[in-house]
Amino acid sequence: MILPIFLPHFGCEKRCIYCDQTYITEKEDYDLTRYVCDLTDKIKEPFEVALYGGDIFGAKKEELEKILKILKPLIERSKGMRVSSRPLVSRKGFSEILELLKDHRLNVVELGIPTFNDSILRFLKRGHTVKDLEETYRYLESRGIKVALQLMVGLPKETEMDIKETVRNVLRLKPHYIRIYPLVVIRGTPLAEMVASEKVRLVSFEEAVRRAAYIYASAKKNGIDVLKIGLTDNRSLRENVKGGFYHPSFGYIVRCYIFLSVLKKIFSECGIRGKIRIEVSRRDVSHLCGYKGENLRSFEKEGVELDITVSDLNNWEFRLTDGVGFYFKSNAIELFEETLN
Ligand code: SF4
């Protein structure tokens, strides 16, 4: 289990135009010492400590030392530590921070790279380039640290080509795992003003889901773990969303979309209408039905009624039969990319 310790904007030199971690993490002025004491008593299962919500390598060494001192009882009991950061190995003090973290059982660094397009990174005021990501990634890897990537979809100015570029780079770098976040427009951020004054336009919710599905399916197909799709739901974030693609079930909707697209393509290409039997694993029944049954309604609109049977197939596998002569067995993740053209 991963035990997140949120340190909102800890180490952030400047803010990226879309970010406000106090809403995202729902932690502002909380007493870390007390929080850690409570956790240390409560947790019984094995865990890793994760420092999220900031730019850890941007922190001052003395300030990070203070935080690590508070976390020491937890870190000593843990299986190791993960941290999230901007990818900027060239900044002063990077190697000292790395040594300090290694002394505190660092396992994984999650590098935020919302897109592999430098012009969008500049627009977002990320303060780093794609080249910085490359250099940071290699630097960490060469020192035995596992690297994960935090990606985004639905960014201003982002095109289909940018998503393809993201996928290409993920497959090339082979990170330990990825996370996929949809863009969320948060009250009070520069991005919220730009969206309100129509200086930037965003794609539709369905398009953001489609882009996330493409990254997800490509990573899974190539054996790269996807740890999370979407932001963790919390009241403070929900109350301060001014646009973008926030949904408490974003990840689930993305997974449902994969089944929807793949099956619609098969039904259309094979001219299937009427009742058809489909077998899937128990875990995939809800993905097949869709968020609040939306997939089933969508199939019905196209004249197809699914007779769902749970079987011992693997996750994402499905078997279609019409009882007369049609038989098709495949894997939705394997087929998803073909639905994009
Ligand atoms: S996205 Fe990351 S680096 Fe940018 S302001 Fe937010 S926490 Fe800091």
Provide structural commentary.
- By secondary structure, the protein is α/β, with parallel strands linked by helices.
- It has 2 domains: 247 residues, Aldolase class I (TIM Barrel), CATH 3.20.20; 83 residues.
- 42% of the residues lie in helices and 21% in strands.
- It is built from 14 helices and 13 strands.
- The strands form 3 sheets. A 7-stranded parallel sheet has the order 1-2-3-4-5-6-8.
- β12 and β13 form a beta hairpin.
- The longest helix has 20 residues.
- The chain is globular, with a radius of gyration of 22 Å.
- The two termini are 38 Å apart.
- The model has no long low-confidence stretch (mean pLDDT 94).
What's this model, at a glance?
This protein has 341 residues and is of the alpha/beta class.
Strand fraction band? Answer: 15-25%
Radius of gyration, whole Å: 22 Å
Helix content: 40-55%
Tally of domains? 2
CATH class of the largest domain: Alpha Beta
Low-confidence stretches: none
- Total number of strands: 13
Q: Which fold does the CATH topology of the largest domain refer to?
A: TIM Barrel
Round the mean pLDDT to the nearest integer and report it: 94
- Side-by-side strand order of the widest sheet: 1-2-3-4-5-6-8
CATH superfamily of the largest domain: Aldolase class I
- Shape assignment: globular
Give the termini separation.
38 Å
Bound molecules: iron/sulfur cluster
Order of secondary-structure elements: EHHEHEHEHHEHEEHHEHEHEHHEEEH
What does the largest sheet look like?
7 strands, parallel
Q: Can you tell me the CATH architecture of the largest domain?
A: Alpha-Beta Barrel
